[in-house]
Known about the structure:
It contains four helices and 15 strands. It is an alpha+beta fold. The protein folds into two domains: 108 residues, no CATH class; 95 residues, no CATH class.
Amino acid sequence: MSEKEVRKSQTIVTKDVQGIRAGIGTDSAEIFIDFPLSSPRYYRVRRGDIIQEGDIEAKTGAELESPTLTKWIVTDITSESVIGRDTESGDKRVWERDWFEERLMIGQFSTSLTDFERVSVIETGDASETIAGRRALSERPSSGLRVVVTVYGDNGQKFGRTYRFAEGDERSEIRLESQTPALEGLDEELTARLERAVHAALNRNGYVVRK
Length: 211
């Protein structure tokens, strides 16, 4: 590990594992893994989250449900260890914290999706039509322009949404056009969290979502 820095009231240290470089949070109450040098992808694990064997990015949902892949519920996290309970047998499992973090980094473990803390908003289409320029001239965007939103979950996953500008409305108003199919399967609580995160990011960038 290298020099420390403070980010969001948490101390972060840099770590390299099998060619993967990431920022690791040292808060004893949670696991936080950030990939600031390559992408906005991140992991956050707290008590009550589900951990399981297998890489959520490399396997389908059906494959991850295989009975051969063990699942644990995280019962405690300390500065030295992570403690889990097998969801089937109830057996206790204790991992060294460093080892556990490395398993997440290299994809041997996956964790449950519970929140969306990072959202990026990009307008795509005719590069000559800048947002600032159009708004300064009070012009409506062309039909070819879209607003692309990327949402990053706390389990390392990312999801996409595309919005089009609403016809006949104010130039900042947009409507949902398409999204990553996996978002259709989120439960009600996760969907509400996603909507809050996305709408807040869009509002910060001057867009208003119309239904």
